[in-house]
Specification:
Antioxidant, Horf6, Chain A, domain 2, binds benzoic acid, Glutaredoxin, alpha+beta, 212 residues
C-alpha cells in the first residue's frame, strides 16, 4: 500500500557511501530527510546533491539528518561524488544509498514507471523524531528541487511540534504564525506572551514564538 503522511517511515539497512546504515538507528531522535534522485552522473542531480552538501550546516542547525538514494551502485556514487565536489564547490557530507536492488526505492514507492522507467523520480520524505512521515514531495526528473523550501517546511513542522503554531500561506522565517485551532482563544495569552490578533474566531495570528 502507498505510504501516507503519518505512517511510520519504513526501516531498512543498506550500503551507502559512508558504510552500512540502518535507517532508524541513523535517525536516532533526530528529524530526517530522505531524498531520491534518478541517476548518477546526470546534470540536475549533480546540482541538487551539491546544494544539499552546502546546506548541511542548515540541516544540522535544525537537528536534521540527511540521506540520499538512487539505484546506482557504490563505485558509481563514489566516482560521481568527486565530480559533485569539484563542480558544485562542496564536500558531499552525508550518505548516499547504493540502492542497486531497488529495496528502498520500492519500499518508498520512488519508481514511477510511467514517468521514468526503472529509475527513482525526485522524491523527498521529511521524517519526524517519532519516525513518522511528515511530508512527501514528488518532482519530475527534469526539475531540480528547491531545498530552501525543504528547510522552510522543516521550520514550519518544528514550530508546530514545539510551539503549537501553524504557518500561513507563503510564510517565511520571522513572520507571524497561526495559532493552531486546538488552542482555545481564552488560553492564548498564557501560551503566547508576545500577544495575538483575532482576525476571525478561527484565524488567530501571533508573532513567531521561538525568536526575539
Ligand atoms: C538530471 O539529473 O539531470 C536528469 C536525470 C534524469 C532525467 C533528466 C534529467
Amino acid at each position: 500500500m502507498a505510504l501516507r503522511l503519518g505512517d511510520v517511515a519504513p526501516d531498512f539497512t543498506v550500503e551507502t557511501t559512508e558504510g552500512t546504515v540502518n535507517f532508524h538507528t541513523f535517525l536516532g531522535n533526530s528529524w530526517g530527510v530522505l531524498f531520491s534522485h534518478p541517476k548518477d552522473y546526470t546534470p540536475v542531480c549533480t546540482t541538487e546533491l551539491g546544494r544539499v552538501a552546502n546546506l548541511k550546516p542548515e540541516f544540522d542547525k535544525r537537528g536534521v539528518k540527511v540521506l540520499a538514494v538512487s539505484v546506482d551502485g557504490l563505485e558509481s556514487h563514489k566516482g560521481w561524488v568527486k565530480d559533485i565536489n569539484e563542480t558544485q564547490h562542496c564536500t558531499v557530507n552525508y550518505p548516499i544509498i547504493a540502492d542497486e536492488n531497488k529495496h528502498v526505492a520500492e519500499l518508498y514507492d520512488m519508481i514511477h514507471p510511467n514517468a521514468l522507467n526503472n529509475l527513482t523520480v525526485r522524491t523527498v520524505f521529511i521524517i519526524g523524531p517519532d519516525k513518522t512521515i511528515k511530508l512527501m514531495l514528488t518532482y519530475p526528473a527534469s526539475t531540480g528541487r528547491n531545498f530552501d523550501e525543504i528547510l522552510r517546511v522543516i521550520d514550519s513542522l518544528q514550530l508546530t511540534a514545539n510551539h503549537s503554531v501553524a504557518t500561513p500561506v507563503d510564510w517565511k522565517y520571522g513572520e507571524d504564525c497561526v495559532v493552531v485551532p486546538a488552542i482555545k482563544t481564552e488560553d492564548i495569552p498564557a501560551k503566547f506572551p508576545k500577544g495575538f490578533t483575532e482576525v476571525k474566531p478561527y484565524l488567530r495570528m501571533t508573532p513567531q514564538p521561538n525568536i526575539d
